[in-house]
Amino acid sequence: MSERKKFIIGGFEFETYYEYRGAQEDVRKIECINQELDIQDPEVALRLYNDIRDGIITFNSPIGQQYAEHVADIVAKKSAGLLDDREIIEEAAGRAKSTKALGYVFVGLAVVLIGVFASVEIKEIIHTRKLAKLDDQVQSAANATGNTNNSQNNVNNSNVIDDIHSVENQNGGESGNTAPANEIDDDFIHSQWDANYAAGERQILPEMNELYSQNNDFVGVLTVVDTDINYPVMQTPSDPEYYLRRDFYGESSTAGTLFVDYRCDIVNPTTNTIIYGHNMRSGTMFGGLKRYLDYDYYQAHKTIIFKTLYEEQTYQVVGVGLSEVGYDDDDTYKYYDFIDALTGEELQEFIDNIQSLSVFDETIDITSDDKLLTLSTCNTYTENGRMFVVAKRIK
């Protein structure tokens, strides 16, 4: 069994990452206070104590609480002449649980922690600014043709998903779908979108050059129109899940970055292009895909733009399904293994299976002429559950 990760700041250990982040915030507050105020000045200490007492300044960790006690200790010892109300003096003295010596020790510790976190904070600020700049660049690249993303003016920027859990779980993995699947009559399939470019023959779109120059793993921008999904997409054939827990810059990130299945071809698109992303509770990445489990939402959000390095592709959503991870030794259909098809039989197998996995009682409209795009993410309707949105190219 792997050892539980510890979150430690100085001599303080925290059970969860959220407590740890709260302590970091407290350290930053202490840093600001010590930079701006001389808390050994009785009048300053009194004002600071009253702000803490009245909830104007709050702390959320033992580090912050000890600092508050240290301020109370200063007030009790140095500010008596400034106080008319004896109760406040006694209250401050009662709160000052630590001794004067402990107070000095804590201040010393705080100085050390501030030094450590100052460097960490600088890195975080730089990284945050880089991500903000990246968002602007992604938006510019997506909008470069003038009409790719006009409807983003109506995007849900709040990232609030109404009754998110009931939407996610309303189907319970049982669609009750009785609609028939499309029949493919062709022995061999052919699409109008088929391409046969030699390596290096295709030219990168001008608006993609800046993002590509920052990271050569970048292969395009995915925009689900009228939603919050508008992200760069990566691909690393030699390390397929490299961006599972990394951001665009390759730095550690819980949310990761959208990435294309290593078996798919961006230059000469395969029958099916699969893009993976995390189902984040915040709604970021593919967290918003769960909204497609609501039929009205599904009907109202049919357009997906995948702007690759080389061309802008427009897709229409044709199906939504729930599945689970299949293992090599079981019979579970693995929708994520359908990449390229040459025969009608191969395409028919895919259509039959996603039809059976569909959450809506309607025939999924896919023909032998279609190129497909599949968005895949996790879903909690069952252990190892997966959700997918299938779209066909229309432009």
From TrEMBL:
Entries under InterPro entries matching the protein: Sortase, Sortase_dom-sf, SrtB
Active site: 278, 378
A molecular function (GO) term: hydrolase activity
Methyltransferase found in the keyword field: no
Key words, A-Z: Hydrolase, Membrane, Transmembrane, Transmembrane helix
Keyword Membrane appears in the UniProt entry: yes
Transmembrane segment boundaries: 101-120
One Pfam family linked to the record: Sortase
The protein, known as: Sortase B
Organism name: Pseudobutyrivibrio ruminis
